[in-house]
Every structure is written in structure tokens, then in C-alpha cells.
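Team,

Forwarding the record for the chain on the shared tracking sheet. I've put the sequence and predicted structure together so nobody has to dig through attachments.
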Amino acid sequence: MSDLVVVCGLAAEAKIAAAPGVTVIPGGGDGAKLAATLSALPLTVTHLLSFGVAGGLDPALKPGDIRVATALLYQHGRIDAEPAWAARLASALGVPGALFAGSETVVAGTREKAALRAATRAALVDMETQHVAREAQRRGIAWAGLRAVTDPADRALPHAAAVGMRPDGSIDLPAILVSLGKNPGQLPGLFHAARDARAAFAALLRCRQALGGGFARLDL
């Protein structure tokens, strides 16, 4: 177990993040399981990073745009990221910092995104950062967040895309096909989602290559 743990949602994100000296945990959309996994990490862990894709809340963001977390906003309050680590990430990538919102479920609809944006002023939303931030706060260690936008604020995520993740972070193709069978009208939206995801994953890969093995962390 390395002292740097990177938390992702999808297996594809974890593959990008993987490197010698880095422990990667795919959340797979199961918040309770992820929280338990993080709680059981050894005390030698000193840095937690949330890394992957996210839904856009800020209307100015487009697929593939990268943001670094300045803080996490969730139902129980706000948790600030480690400022120096966030600053190093943002500087290395040439991207702004932003507020991240946390959710236990996929925020798929445009109305839901607009409501969350109005309530939090967050730029994007994902399901893993809140667990990273809460565990880091509990332990008194550094955390950071680095996310690429997939579905923008003005585009709804089809049900087939929202249900297409297994607990291990891999793609659940049967669930996607079942959803499409029930509602074939999702197909154009699913094509849009796939295109957006390609842009987001390409951006994540560029970030990973730019940051190197240590993710610009600080030995605090």
C-alpha cells in the first residue's frame, strides 16, 4: 500500500491513474462500500486524490474541461482541499480551481444539474470526491480532486449511461442493453454521452502524462 491513494469511479479511470507507487481504488458507484474501503486504509496513507470524470454544473464547461477542487460541498457541509496541493495541480495543468459538489447518485437530468448549481455554485459533481474529502478530514491528511467534465450542464445523461457501471467500476453492458431495449429513444443521447466520455478520458490521460507518478503531491 502506497502513501498516495487515488480514488476513481470507473475502471477506465483507474487504468489511467495507475502507476508505480500509487494505490488506485475504483469506487464503482457504491458509496457505502467505498467509504468502508477508505476507512480501512492503513495509517501510512498520507494523501488521497479523487480522479476521474464528472458531470458539469457550470454552463460554461464543456466535455473534456478539467477542474481542480478547491473544496467539496455536500449535504453535511463543506470540506476544503489541501490548498498547496490544489495549487500545484492547477499550476501544472494550467486549469482553474473550482468547487466540487458531492452526490450519492448520478445527477443525470438538466433540471437536477441546474438545481444543484443554484444551491451550491459548484462547477461539477461526482460521486467519489465526498468520500475522499470526508476520510481525509477524519484522518487529518491531505486531499485533492482532479476531474474532467463528461456530460455538460445542458445535456441530460441517458438512463442507459447512468446505469452502466458495475460495483467494480467496469462497464455493465447487459444493463445498458436492457435499458436501451426498454427505451430505444435513448440511442442518440447515448452516442452523445460516448462522444463526451471520449473527450473527458482523453483529457484525463493528458493530465496524467503531465503530472507524472506523484500527481504533483506535496510531502506535507
